[in-house]
Every structure is written in C-alpha cells, then in structure tokens.
Amino acid sequence: MNPLYRNDVQGEFPPSYYAATADIPPERPRLEEDIQADLAIIGAGYTGLSTALHAAEKGLNVVVIDAHRAGFGASGRNGGQVGSGWNKDQDWLEARLGRDDARRLWDLTLEAKALTRDLVARFAPDAGYRPGVLHGHWTARGVDDLKAYGDWLAERYEYETEYLDREAVREVCVSDVYQGGLLDWDAGHLHPLRYALGLAKAAEAAGTRIYERTEATSVSERVVVTPRGQITAEHIVIAGNGYLSNINRHVASHVMPINSFIAATEPLGDLAYEVLRKDIAVADDKFVVNYFRLSEDKRLLFGGRENYGVGFPKDIDAALVQRMVKLFPQLRGARIDYSWGGTLGITMTRLPMMARVGRSVLAAGGFSGHGVALTGLAGKILAEAVAGEASRFDLWSSLPVPSFPGGRHLRAPLLTLAMTWYSLRDRLGL
Q1: b/e per residue, 407-429, with b = 16+ CB within 10 A?
Q2: For a 10 Å CB count at each end of the chain, is N or C smaller?
Q3: In 266-349, which ranges are E strands?
Q4: Digits of tens for pLDDT over the chain (430 positions)?
Q5: What is the CATH number of domain 3-78+193-254+348-407?
Q6: Model's pTM, two decimal places?
C-alpha cells in the first residue's frame, strides 16, 4: 500500500506535540487545472520548500505540490536535531573519495548548519533554534573511538567538539548508561514543524505557488500528472523522500521508506532537570538510535524505535517507554501525552542521494534521519542546478549511494532481516 495514505488521513496532520504547538495555516487549494511553470517540485517538505524558495529568489516561476500539506511528512515530525557532518565519518569518506572531495563535502555540511540557522532566524524564529547536540556512547571502547575521532576532526578539519567522560556526561544528561560522549555546540535543535511552515510561507512570499492535497501520480520529461490537472515545466524536482520512493525507477532503487516514532511526556516540571541539565539534544550510538531533547514546556521528546513495513504498529508507546525508562528510570510512571510516527527515506550507505534521473528531472532523498540541516542546503543546490550551475550538485552526487539489493520487491524483506539482526545486537549489548 502507498505509504502516503497507509498511516494518515489525507490532509490531517498527525496527533503530534509539534502539530499541537504550531500555528497551522488554512489548507491551500488543490491543483484543479493544467498549468505551466519553469520548475515543478513534488513534495512540500524541507527539501522541496528550500528548492522552491531559492529558485523563486532567482526569478523562476515555481510550483510545489504535496499529496497532503506543506510540512506534513517527516519534515514536520522528526526529532528536530540539526546535526553535523554526514551519516558516515569523514575518514570513511576520505578513504573512498579522496581528501580534497571529502573536505569539500565536509564544508557543505558546515554551510548546511549555517543556512539552517539563517533560515530559522529569517523565516521561522518561533522554531526556537538552540545550540548543542551530545553524542553519547554506551561502551568504553566506543567512547575511546569517539574521542579519537573528535581529536582527528580538530586536527584535520579544525572542527572543535567537547569531550565528556562518564561523569561529565552525567552532569549534562542524567543517565547511567553513557560511558562518555562528544558535545557539539555547532549542532543544535529546533521545532521542526514550525520551521517547515516558515519555509512554506517564505517560498510563497518569493512567488512560489503551493498546491496541497495534490498527489503526483506520474512523472515524465517536463510533465507531472496529478488527479485533476497536470504541470508542464522545464525542470522537475522529486523531493518526497520516503513518501515518494516509487514514483521514479532510480529513486525506488536507491531510497527506501522506513518508519520512526517519537513520544512526548507530560510536562516534567522540576523533574526535567533530573533528565537534561542543559537545553541540548542527545543522540546515541545504538543501531536503532535513541534521540531526545526537552520541549519548551519541559516535556521529554523521545524517539527510539523503527519498523520496516509500511504500516505503523498499533501500540507506539510501549516500546518507546521501555527504551526511555532504561535510560531514565526516574521517568517511570511519567504520562505520555503524545506519540506519533513518520516515514523517512534511507539509502544503503545512509548517505543522501542527489541525482539526475531524467533530462529535465532531478531528485534528492534518502537523508536517513540526518536531514534537518542537509535538506535546506540540498534545496539550495538543486535550485543552483536548475539555474545552470551544477558544480555543487555534481559534488553531492559523488557520495556513494548504491542501489538496494533484491530489486523493488525483495529489497524490503532483505532490509528487514538485516535491520532485525542489528536491532537484536542492540538489545543484547553486542
């Protein structure tokens, strides 16, 4: 079943903490006629909206369509962490791409964070960007490797992080599980849906037309077909991430949808200080990552489970609470006020795909849970490529993103087997 509709009612935001605390605008119109544009974008999440904003600022006539609402998908549901780097360490990239290209790719990630901060400041100040992400590790060996990598980044890339031993971590994040970590003050966190809504408003102010509840049913050269009209455009960008992995053969073979889940506790009051003592976000080194932060009203927003089928589980809370209490026994009995899921796109290497999938069609996706910062820059680079400057598009496209084995029909069961094994290793502490 199409992941666009399997878990959601069309046009209705999920019952998330984010939707409950965002100023969601009235629904925009559907596309009801045939229209023309310089650029048609499929997907009104961070990537599509940033592409639209930057292309419209260049003077292009831009149209964005979304099967649901702007910010409806992963862009409005995620953990809100504005991370550093790629989903592979820089030494891994250097070994495969060479030092020069790896350095240029690293510089893109620095620009991505700076661009995110700038976009929030200009268009979504209510998203409340805050600096600081702690990467916690469960084992002493992992901490030694993490410290060595932090030292290597400082020496080779002039990038400073703050190493914390077990006791220092506990002064920041009050849990006994982490043996150490790196605190990255150039990373940060924000309210993701408010950020997405701000980008949509900014893109419209720049001249973009956004049509909601308008699904792309097919894409060919210079034509996007929807149920009630089609768009003829000189350029097309596919930016639907996990929700649109089957609209194009190349995208389908390289980007696969999975589901991730978050719960929000009741406001914790003074107990919040016994969970996190700084207004930072935390992610750890589990294969199925635990990620969390405090909301502005002192709830713990905790993500830490995945599933690999199309449908969401009936009980989202139980597994999340189990993981949360393992980290924070002091939260046993805390009420869960919100829980929700979302579909994201992953790739084989967990590096985001950017590709030319037709003479007039570009695509980006597979941000693999690392896209809050990278998607904004992806949109800027896609807009550059549409306008005729493709050097940075080509650099991004050099990231190694092989296709999934097994083809369209076997990739999901093969991935499920692999993910289940790694999840089991997490539970066994291997």
Answers
A1: eeeebbeebeeebeeebeebeee
A2: C
A3: 281-284, 291-294, 300-307, 336-346
A4: 567 888 898 999 999 999 999 999 999 999 999 999 999 999 999 999 999 999 999 999 999 999 999 999 999 999 999 999 999 999 999 999 999 999 999 999 999 999 999 999 999 999 999 999 999 999 988 899 999 999 999 999 999 999 999 999 999 999 999 999 999 999 999 999 999 999 999 999 999 999 999 999 999 999 999 999 999 999 999 999 888 767 899 998 999 888 999 999 999 999 999 999 999 999 999 878 999 999 999 999 999 877 767 788 888 899 899 999 999 999 999 999 999 999 999 999 999 999 999 999 999 999 998 999 999 999 999 999 999 999 999 999 999 999 988 655 555 555 555 455 444 444 444 4
A5: 3.50.50.60
A6: 0.94
Nearest 10 degrees: Cα torsion 324, 326, 332, 336? 20
- Using the structure block, give the residue that is written with the tokens 């200009």: 122
- Type of residue at 190: L
Residue entry with tokens 């001249």: 207
Q: CA of 75: how far to CAs of 233, 259, 336, in Å?
A: 25, 13, 22
- Beta bridge partners of residue 35, listed in sequence order: 231
CA distances from 374 to 63, 137, 424 (A): 22, 24, 30
Using CA atoms, how far apart are residues 131 and 357, in angstroms rounded to an integer?
Answer: 37
Structure tokens at 396: 């991004």
